[in-house]
Amino acid sequence: MERRSLADRLRSAWLWIVVVVLYLPLVAVGLASLSESRFFLFPIRKYSLKWYEESFASLQIRDALWTSVALAAVVGVIATVLAVFGALAYARHDWTGKGWYQQIVLAPIFFPQSVLGLALQLWFNTLGLDMTWHASVFAHLVWIAPIVTMVVAIQAYGYDASVEEAARDLGATRWMVFKDVTFPLLWPGVFSGLLFAVLLSWGNFPLSYFTSGADVTVPEWLYGKMIGGYTPMVPALGFLSVVAGGLVLAVGLAIQARLSRQP
Amino acid sequence: MPQPILERSPILELRGVDKIFGDFAAVERVDLSIAEGEFFTIVGPSGSGKTTLIRMLVGMDAPTRGEILLRGQRINETPANKRPFCMVFQSLALFPHMTVGENVAYSLKCRGIGKKERRERATECLALAHLPASYYDRAVTKCSGGEKQRVALARALAYDPEVLFFDEPLSALDYRLRKTLEKELKDIQRETGKTFIYITHSLEEAMVMSDRIGVMRDGRLAQVGSPREVYDRPRTRFVSEFFGEVNAFPVTAKDGRLWCEPLAMAFDPPPDAPAGFKSGALIVRPEHLHFDPAAAEPIRGEVFNEYLLGSRVQYQVRAGGTTLLVEGMGGQPPATREVALSFSPADSLLFAE
Q1: pLDDT for A30 beyond 90
Q2: What pLDDT shows up at residue B7?
Q3: What residue ranges of chain B are covered by domains with CATH 3.40.50.300?
Q4: What is the full DSSP assignment across B256-268?
Q5: A251 CB-contact burial (10 Å; exposed 0-12 / middle 13-18 / buried 19+)
Q6: Up-side HSE of residue A149: CA atoms within 13 Å toward CB?
Q7: Lower Cβ count inside 10 Å, N or C end of chain B?
Q8: In angstroms, what separates the C-alpha of B25 from chain A's closest C-alpha?
Q9: What integer pLDDT is reported at residue B1 of this predicted model?
């Protein structure tokens, strides 16, 4: 083997620095959750899983988890369905107003989320909508659906559009073209989009904060405890939340890898 | 002997077909009649409207004006999936997520034909396209370029269309494979007796395969005829030059002969020269210009380059400030750099300008 050049070594050192800086805080949260002490002190005197036990026993946390899971699932499904058709409109079909649509579909992403949350809260109030996690579904969709649309649109740009014309030429109806050609070719993007939607909704704080009313999601509960009444259940639940997100991602990637291995 | 092409009944007719995009006419006033079982090739440079023309025939675009008739019935309003046509795309447009067999059998699946019969018929079509039945379950993405061509052809044949369209499907292949597939395509067309309509920018390709050729330029058909007719009797200078490099002498009529100012000499006009010709271009193909030391009125020049083109040799000759091309079969190379050239008036083409 050749000796690695100085530039190579510097590059990999830089890579490791970036990784450590990014993930060290998460590790710190993990450590904090394992300390028996009620206050976060380093070095940790005694390790314990007691805060995890308490977290699982807490009804408040159970409610928050349920709300977050339901919210992420509903947002994931609706955003993905919207995104498939939105992406086809974005990338495939020619229609009047397509230029405008392409310009503004991404606009909500560039709004600061807290401003967007406040604006949506005022808007929901005006419409007389109840502030529950159902309202948060709409709020999340405003922000997440455009992102998923982009993810699927990239996939739509990634394959040769003439395959759809070919299918039609071979006698397929519009529905058959969608079912047999378009959707299978879009599928990798649809699946990544679904993962994105679930994870973005799972971790979202500002939009939920302004719109969920009395319902509390996991990020909201964490925030609430941070500003009034810290308990080591915060790092415990925080760490669990990260692990859950990581699991969703890992399982998703594994499924995708498995599917793409088949011809 | 098969019936001569032009005496057969037309399967497809175009009458005054225009296709206008905004203020640009991609296809203009095209009248064309294609016979049953004919191999018809539309040739033209890129942007000449040949793809637009074929898309209208297949039903992917609608003509702005004019009529398209299938066996005398207007089909302007018939959508692509209802026309008995099939297209082999330039990109081939194979379904990348399906196997070879699923690709070929797709049209049969669309018609609701059962799995077993689909497999049988698809295998037959694979055989027609010279692919073994073992390819049926292969992923289409694992096929080579030539194999993909065959899959695309088999897929089109499985649809059992009355007319097959080809949009330059061979253009991405290397020369030898292209030559093989051109001949195979011609054989398959004869075997199946189907009408093939092929578009290409390569006249060489068109010459090999076609019964008739239509040369397109700027959205119009410049000439339609057999490969021989188009080659020997091109109707315009554009068509004559489309076959490859030519020598074009600017000439003016003078005392019954053609005066060429740059060479300061006169030529005899070709026997079928247009009456009342004043000025224009006299076209002589490189293979019709000969080294001829005994010529009565030779073009005098100087050889300055020589290219070996396989079986032929091409010489560049400087004469009177212009460069002439001379092609020989590699027989007698000129003994000196100073050469005398001549051509037979019957081999020249005169176009007024």
Answers
A1: no
A2: 63
A3: 5-239
A4: TEEEETTTTEEEP
A5: exposed
A6: 25
A7: N
A8: 20
A9: 42
pLDDT digits (tens, 9 = 90+) for B185-204: 999 999 999 999 999 988 88
Domain ranges of chain A: 51-261
Mean local confidence (pLDDT), A221-227: 87
DSSP for A211-261 reads H-TT---HHHHHHHHHHS---THHHHHHHHHHHHHHHHHHHHHHHHHHHHH
Task: Classify B5-239 by CATH class.
Answer: alpha beta
Which residue from A160, A163, A173 is facing B81, i.e. has the nearest CB?
A173
Task: Tell me how close the Cα of B227 comes to any Cα of chain A, in angstroms.
Answer: 30
The reply to whether residue A162 touches residue B155, judged by beta carbons under 8 angstroms, is: no
Nearest residue in A to B94, CA atom: A163
pLDDT digits (tens, 9 = 90+) for B133-164: 999 999 999 999 889 999 999 999 999 999 99
DSSP state of B139: B
- Residue A35's pLDDT band, with cuts at 50, 70 and 90, is confident
Helix ranges, chain A (H): 6-34, 50-57, 59-91, 98-104, 107-110, 113-127, 133-157, 162-169, 174-176, 183-203, 206-211, 218-227, 233-261
Please list every residue in chain A whose beta carbon sits closer than 8 Å to the beta carbon of residue B106.
167, 170, 172, 180
On whether any CB of chain A is under 8 Å from the CB of B321, the answer is: no
B80 contacts chain A (CB < 8 A): yes
Q: Which residues of A touch B86 (CB under 8 A)?
A: 169-170
Tell me whether residues A167 and B99 touch, CB distance under 8 A. Answer: no
Contact B318, B301 (CB under 8 A): yes
pLDDT tens readout for residues B3-24:
555 567 889 999 999 999 888 8
Q: Which of A169, A174, A185, A262 is the best mutation test for B, with the most CBs of B within 10 A? A: A169
B100 at interface of A, judged by CB pairs closer than 8 A:
no
- Flag if A185 and B110 touch (Cβ within 8 Å): no
> Could you tell me if B155 lies within 8 Å of chain A, comparing CB atoms?
yes
Residue A29, pLDDT > 80, answer yes
- Among B91, B94, B99, beta carbon nearest to A263: B99
Confidence of residue A59 (pLDDT cuts 50, 70, 90): confident
pLDDT higher than threshold 80 for residue B2 = no
In whole angstroms, give the CA distance from residue B188 to residue B153: 10
Q: Do B89 and A166 touch (CB under 8 A)?
A: yes
Q: For B25-62, write each residue's pLDDT tens digit.
A: 899 999 999 999 999 999 988 888 898 999 899 888 89
Select from B51, B92, B100, B106 the residue whose CB has the most chain A CBs within 10 Å, as the one to mutate to test that interface.
B106
CATH code for the domain defined by A51-261: 1.10.3720.10
Task: Fold for B245-352, please state it.
Answer: OB fold (Dihydrolipoamide Acetyltransferase, E2P) (2.40.50)
